[in-house]
Amino acid sequence: MIREHFRVMVVDLAAGSGNPVDLEGRDTLAGGSGLAAELFSRYGKPGGRWDDQDQPLIFAIGPLTGYFPLMSKTVCSFKSPYHNQYTESHGGGRSALCLRFADLDALVITGKAKRPSCLTVGSRHLELKDISYLWGADVYATGKMLRRAEKGSGHRSILRIGPAGESGSAMACINVDSYRHFGRLGGGCVMGSKNLKAIVIHGDAVLPLPENREYPAVFDEVYKKLTATDMMSKYHNLGTPVNMAVLNEIKSLPVRNLQKTSDPAIEGITGETFARDALLRNAACSGCPIGCIHIGFVREKFMEENQYLYRQVSYDHEPIFAAGAMLGVNDCFAVLSLLDAAEKMGIDVMSCGVALAWATEASEKGLLSEKETIIPLRFGDPASYKEAIRHLSVGTTDFYRLLGQGALKAAARYGGAEFACVLGQEMAGYATGEVFFTSQALGFRHSHLDSAGYSYDQKHKAKDVKEAVDFLLEDERGRAFLTSMVSCLFARNVYTDELLGQCLTAVGYGALASSMKGVSLHIQKLRWKARMATGFDPDGVTVPKRFTEVVTESGPVDASYLEELKNEYAGRIRQLATDAGQ
What is the DSSP string of 13-67? Predict the structure, then answer.
């Protein structure tokens, strides 16, 4: 039966118990992003610190999860240790489907466990287990131990943190089922502050499918579009790493802390090179026929008699940019080794890669010495970066502890803010120009996924501020509805408004299908209202000087145009939040 209300499990870690709560609002919140923002407004403390014990950690799925392919993401929302503001992170793996089969639309976690713990949740049980013996263990070891302890392989999702989350790094991520993550802005740090080493979600219930003629017909249409179009070849074949060569060609790839936007030596880390030399296999999130997860391997010698260990490591464009081009590392196996080091420690590889790129340039300029960095940081030296990732993850020194809170915070003490590549958080792997820089600097998640600003830069040469900001806000609005479903954004060209409406109607959400446009706007406003309530000031956002020195295929970045875009976007965001409060 389709539920018109949301079923939310609210857990108090301090008490070690949870209570199911029914929440109305399916036709106005949809799920995912909309539901998460509403839950934060109910359970969050906007004026409190991110690590107040009562601040919630929220996981939410959408109305189409379990019914259609690529509705495979989960929204994780929290008050971020990076900037003390409300934010979202999206992860895949089995998390969404397991929540659906646990008969939950959302999981809200409050309080702090008395000891390092694992929370296990299913449709008929909830338990908080003491796993102090795993505190300090890396992500791989933690996953191995939990897989042995928790039964139900294939019907459970294991979320866990590594030493970075335990040490309080604002760059700590949450690992999901080994190859996916809730990355960026410190979700792993929030778990660590709650003494929560892991969450295991058991999908132990049954999901009845709609018994009508419409549902199988629409499902078949969706499946064919996903597998018969270029989505399959684009994302399954080379996947997003294909962007490395493409962006390099159009002088839009951040290289060596964005000192350049192309590099003739990039051949060693292109998508084609990874596929030819390092690809082992493809994997997929639950409910996805595409299989965009590309898994390579790391080989390490552990005995002189040519004895080796192999580990499997997932890679995508963003990790390759951050651990490769941004650090001047142009060997695919060296990049995989750095990704492996970050995975073990449970630190977001994009954040730490860009932060270490800043630290390397700061070292070159004499702002940092080995007293701070412990080991010399040099562009193109993967051995030093591998060691630095460990120091950054556990906060070995005052410098690394500060850098773990963000490159700009370290720059405020040591200097070098003008070349810190931070747009709200450490930048994403695109240097396409003014519209993208504006989008990430002020976007809701400071993410390249907030809107297609990177694409707009490439397609529009006219510097029309209103047109560009109109595009950013309209595109963000559409994506906010998709992330309320919660759809993988790779499917955004398949899941058109018309097709989404058919999907919703086929499973019984006709009222939501008929009001998608209004609901999209409502969710967009609701998110910005939550963000503003926690202290976000769009007018106070600054763009470091380095971004005004970028030269792309279109020529030098226009600093005046960038400033105009930023001011217009800031005003429009503020108006959305104001409208939400009326």
Answer: TTTTEEEEEEE--HHHH-SHHHHHHHHHHHH--TTS-TT-TT--EEEE--TTTTT
Query: 3-state class of 308 per DSSP?
Result: strand
Q: Taking Cα atoms as reference points, which of 403, 405, 406 lies closest to residue 423?
A: 406
pTM as predicted: 0.97
86 SS3 class: strand
Give the CA count within 13 Å in the CB-facing half-sphere of 496: 5
Nearest partner of 97 among 137, 68, 119, judged by Cα: 68
pLDDT-derived band at 432 (thresholds 50, 70, 90) equals very high
Q: Are 438 and 542 in contact (CB under 8 A)?
A: no
For residue 119, the surrounding DSSP H or E stretch is strand 117-121
Which residues lie closer than 8 Å to 313 by C-beta, 6 or more apart?
A: 295, 296, 297, 298, 336, 339, 340, 343
Specify the pLDDT at position 306. Answer: 85
Nearest-angstrom CA–CA distance, 339 and 474: 35
Which residue is listed with tokens 């976000």?
536
Strands (DSSP E) found in 307-387: 307-315
Angle ∠(181,477,288) on CA atoms, nearest 5: 40
Is pLDDT of 1 > 60? Answer: no
Helix (H) or strand (E) holding 571: helix 559-580
One-letter amino acid identity for 531? R
Instruction: For residue 347, list its beta bridge partners.
Output: 172
Mean pLDDT over all residues of the chain? 95
Mean pLDDT of 5-19: 97
pLDDT greater than 90 at residue 403: yes
Q: How far apart are CA 491 and CA 174, in angstroms?
A: 24
Q: State mean pLDDT over 532-542.
A: 95
pLDDT score at 3? 78
Q: Which domains does the chain show, CATH number per domain?
A: 6-202 (3.60.9.10), 229-419 (1.10.569.10), 434-580 (1.10.599.10)
Give per-residue pLDDT as tens, 369-393: 999 999 999 999 999 999 999 999 9
pLDDT over threshold 90, residue 301: no
Q: What digits encode the pLDDT tens for the residues 88-109?
A: 999 999 999 999 999 999 999 9
* Residues in CB range of 522: below 8 A, 6 or more apart: 28, 29, 34, 580
> What letters, b where the CB count within 10 A reaches 16 and e where it falls short, cover 364-385?
eeebbeeebbbeebebebbebb
Residue 456's nearest CA partner among 442, 443, 441, 475 is 475
* Both tokens assigned to 488: 């993988």
